[in-house]
Amino acid sequence: MAVLLACTACTTSSDGDPVPAPTTTSPAEDPSMSFAGVGIDWPEAAADLTAADPPPAPAGFDDALLGRMADTLTDWAQVSTLDEAARVSASPADDISAVLPDSVSAALRDQTKDAVSPRLAVANVFADDVTVVGAPRVTTAWGLSTQVDDAGQQYVLLDLQTRAAYEVRVGDNSPIRVIGVLRVHGLTAYPDTTDDFGVSGGWQEFGAVDCALALDDDLTPDTDVQASEDDLTTFVKVGDGDTLDMPSLDDEQQVDAQYLQRCRDSRT
User: Fold this and answer.
1) pLDDT tens-digit map of 197-210
2) How many separate domains does the chain show?
3) In a domain, 22, yes or no
4) Is residue 162 part of a domain?
5) Is there a contact between 79 and 119 (Cβ–Cβ < 8 Å)?
6) Does residue 239 belong to any structural domain of this protein?
7) Range of the domain at 148
8) pLDDT tens digit sequence for 188-199
9) Which of left, alpha, beta for 132 (phi over 0: left; psi -120 to 50: alpha)?
10) 72-114 pLDDT, tens per residue?
């Protein structure tokens, strides 16, 4: 099964500036945020990811195949979104590979090894000085479609999106911030596929420092409260919905080699 190279690293910015200058505020001007403050009333994520039943198999495919795909996607999303070890890992791909079929693990590794942010390409990873406070809040959504390859053969694409919100703080005494991550985990299969699935996916962050994504390959909360709240409004709207949605982004907001260079230029 050919790998679908659709794992796109993305960032968002409320003002459209892909490389914002760092914003600093005094402690008196630096109020805490909270889930409630940004409109998140989603359930706390338990140790195991809770997702709705996947959609039924489309014509030409059977429910057993879709069930295997859904189980693999749920295991993958469990680690990428909730696993505390992967959250701080130097190589979260190792943590994810441990729960995936060998073929899927190999495809994911191959697909993300040259990413500008290889850790964030596979999991929600936080900076060393960032602590996730309490349990994240998570909603999920499935996506299902059928497509036809160049040889005229039909295959199915099943996606599982996690919408994960984390209350975090930097160090011991800094104010609470909220970071949100949309992450899509996707598998493709032909009617006779067993576990040799094609792999696809993508991610977007909200409320994090943009250039840290490229320069440090991790999530650090933005100190600009108003910008973060504006950014998180889009995230919450997606997380409140029942359907898979990834907001469209300009080319300048893609975390690619050009984005990395702009961040390097702004730091020097």
Assistant:
1) 999 999 999 999 88
2) 1
3) no
4) yes
5) no
6) yes
7) 8-15+31-267
8) 999 999 989 999
9) beta
10) 999 999 999 999 999 999 999 999 999 999 999 999 999 998 8
pLDDT tens for each residue of 127-179: 999 999 999 999 999 999 999 999 999 999 999 999 999 999 999 889 999 99
**Cα 97 → chain centroid:** 17
Nearest by Cα to 54 from 154, 147, 157, 134: 157
2 in a structural domain: no
3-state SS, residue 22: coil
Q: Give the SS3 label for residue 177.
A: strand
The answer to whether 244 and 161 are in contact (CB under 8 A) is: yes
Burial letters for 212-236: b for 16+ Cβ neighbours within 10 Å, e otherwise?
bbbbbbbbbbbbbbebbbbbbebbb
Instruction: Tell me the pTM.
Output: 0.87
DSSP labels, 91-134 = -HHHHHHTTS-HHHHHHHHHHHTT-SSTTTTTS--B-TTEEE-S
- Measure the CA–CA gap between 262 and 193, rounded to whole angstroms: 43
